[in-house]
Design a protein that fits this description.
Length: 468
C-alpha cells in the first residue's frame, strides 16, 4: 500500500533553458488525454523516452514529481505524457509566456471550469480572464508558479477531486502562504485553477506581491508543504499525533520509573554509570545561578544533559518505545515530505521531549549521593520467609519425634479405663476430656509435654512470621 503523499512544486525563476523542444512536443500532442483504452498500457515511444531523458537532465528537480515516479515504475505512453505535461506546466515561467500560462491553466483539457473558465482567487467575484492575464504578464516583480498535487486515490478518499475543495484549501491557508513567501497578507495576490487529471489531480497557483517584494527559500517551501499537508491530511494527522503523544507519555513514565529505581539504589544494569552521570549534572548545575531548568542553562551544560539523556535512552525499554515514536513520526511527515531516507531523530535533539531533560535535572539535584546504600526490603523479606520455613519444618519434625516416643498405657490399664467409661455412660472411643482411646500415661510423659508445648509455641511463631 502506497503512503499518502502531497507534492508541492515551486518555481520563481523567470527563464528556463531548452524549453523549445518540450513546448513544441506538448503543443503538437493533440488528443493525447483521450487515448483509447486499448493503448492505455502501450510502451512509451522512443521519442517520448528521449525527450524525458533530456528533460530530467535540464530539470533534475522534475525527478521528484509523482508523475516521474509513475513513469519510472511503468514507462507507458500515458505516464510519459502526464510527466511531460507536468514539466511544461511547472517550468513554463518565462515573462513572455506568463500570459499564455494563465490561459493554459484555466482552459487546458481536464480543468474544471467555474463558469466560462476555471480560474479562481481569494474572493467569489467575476474574473475577467484577459484582464488577469495582462496583469500577471506585466507585473515587474517576482512571480511564483506553484503546483500542489495528490495521488488519485488520496484525492478521492479525501474529497479533493473538485475545484471547490481546492479553492477553499488555498483560502484557508492565506496566512501560511503569505508567511512562506515573506509577503504581507494584504499584499498577497494569487490565482489558481484545478486540473482533474487521470492520476494526479492538482492545482496551479500564480502568486505575487502587490507591494513589497517577497522571497521564497527552501525553508519557505517546506512551510508551504506542511501547511497544505496538515490541512489536507488533518484526520490522518490527528490519529498519528494521538499515537505519538501516547508514546511520548510512555517514555516519560518509563524514564521516571528508571530514575526512581536508581534513586533507591536498587540493583540495575549500568546503575553506577547512571549515578555518575546524574552526579556530574548536579555538580555542574549547582554552580549555575538562576533557574535550574534546561532552557536557562549555558550551552556547555546543555550538552552534558543531552549526553546523559542519550545514554539513558539506550535502556532496552526506552529505546524500544522511542523507535516506535520515530516510526509514527516518519509516517506523519511522509504525508507531505519524502521520508524514505530520513534518519531517526536523536532523542536529545527532539524538541518534543525536552521535558525528559528537565526530569533528569530534577532527579540529579534531588539525590543524596553520600547516603549509605539503601537496604533491599524485598530481599530481606525473602530471607525471613526462607528462615521461617526452615523453623516450621524443624519444629514439625520435632513434634513428630516426640509423638512417636510417647509411652502408651498397657492393655490392663486400658481395660480398666474402658470399664470406667462404661460405668459413667461415656461413648466408646473417647474419655471425658475428649482424648482418644490411645491415652498417654501423664506421669510418664509430664516432662515431655513441657517440651511439646515449647515446640508448639515455636511452630506457631514461625507460621506467624511466614504470614508477615
Amino acid at each position: 500500500m502506497k503512503m499518502a503523499k502531497i507534492i508541492v512544486s515551486c518555481r520563481f525563476q523567470k527563464s528556463a533553458k531548452d524549453m523549445a523542444d518540450l513546448i513544441r512536443y506538448m503543443a503538437t500532442r493533440e488528443g493525447v488525454e483521450k487515448l483509447p483504452s486499448g493503448n492505455k498500457y502501450s510502451i512509451a515511444t522512443q521519442k517520448q523516452h528521449d525527450l524525458i531523458l533530456s528533460t530530467v537532465k535540464h530539470f533534475p528537480q522534475s525527478k521528484k514529481f509523482l508523475e516521474y515516479n509513475d513513469y519510472y515504475a511503468m514507462p507507458t505512453r500515458e505516464n510519459a505524457n502526464e510527466f511531460l505535461d507536468a514539466v511544461t506546466e511547472r517550468y513554463a515561467d518565462r515573462a513572455s509566456e506568463l500570459k499564455g500560462l494563465v490561459n493554459y491553466i484555466s482552459n487546458r483539457p481536464g480543468v474544471e471550469k467555474l463558469g466560462s473558465h476555471g480560474l479562481f482567487t481569494q474572493f467569489d467575484m467575476s474574473i475577467d480572464l484577459d484582464t488577469v492575464a495582462e496583469r500577471v504578464a506585466n507585473h515587474d516583480g517576482v512571480i511564483w508558479t506553484e503546483v500542489v498535487s495528490l495521488r488519485r486515490e488520496d484525492a478521492e478518499r479525501l474529497h479533493f477531486n473538485n475545484a471547490e475543495a481546492w479553492k477553499n484549501l488555498v483560502r484557508r491557508n492565506m496566512n501560511e502562504i503569505a508567511k512562506a513567501h515573506r509577503i504581507k497578507v494584504e499584499d498577497l495576490e494569487w490565482y489558481g485553477a484545478f486540473h482533474n487529471t487521470t492520476h494526479h489531480p492538482h492545482i496551479h497557483l500564480v502568486i505575487f506581491s502587490k507591494g513589497q517584494e517577497g522571497f521564497l527559500s527552501e525553508k519557505g517551501i517546506k512551510e508551504l508543504r506542511r501547511a497544505f499537508g496538515q490541512d489536507i491530511f488533518r484526520n490522518e494527522q490527528y490519529k498519528l499525533a494521538t499515537i505519538e503523544t501516547g508514546y511520548r507519555n510512555e517514555l516519560k513514565d518509563n524514564l521516571a520509573d528508571l530514575l526512581q529505581h536508581i534513586q533507591a539504589r536498587q540493583s540495575l544494569p549500568n546503575a553506577n554509570y547512571y549515578l555518575f552521570l546524574l552526579r556530574k549534572i548536579k555538580d555542574e548545575i549547582q554552580q549555575q545561578k538562576g533557574k535550574k531548568l534546561y532552557g536557562y542553562l549555558p550551552r556547555k551544560m546543555k550538552k552534558l544533559v543531552d549526553f546523559a539523556l542519550h545514554e539513558f535512552a539506550k535502556d532496552d525499554v526506552l529505546s524500544e518505545i522511542y523507535a516506535k515514536w520515530n516510526d509514527v513520526n516518519r509516517k506523519k511527515l511522509s504525508l507531505y515530505y519524502d521520508t524514505k531516507d530520513k534518519p531517526d531523530v536523536p532523542i536529545e535533539k527532539n524538541p518534543e521531549l525536552r521535558s525528559l531533560k528537565n526530569m533528569l535535572i530534577r532527579t540529579a539535584l534531588g539525590i543524596n549521593y553520600d547516603a549509605p546504600v539503601a537496604i533491599n526490603n524485598a530481599r530481606i523479606s525473602f530471607l525471613f520467609s526462607m528462615l521461617a520455613k526452615q523453623i516450621v519444618n524443624s519444629v514439625g519434625k520435632r513434634l513428630d519425634e516426640l509423638n512417636k516416643t510417647m509411652p502408651k498405657t498397657d492393655s490392663k490399664e486400658r481395660s480398666k479405663i474402658h470399664e470406667k467409661k462404661q460405668a459413667h455412660g461415656q461413648k466408646e472411643g473417647a474419655d471425658g476430656t475428649g482424648i482418644d482411646d490411645e491415652v498417654y500415661d501423664s506421669q510418664a510423659v509430664e516432662g515431655r509435654n513441657a517440651n511439646c508445648r515449647k515446640a508448639k509455641r515455636r511452630f506457631d511463631g514461625a507460621k506467624q512470621l511466614m504470614r508477615v
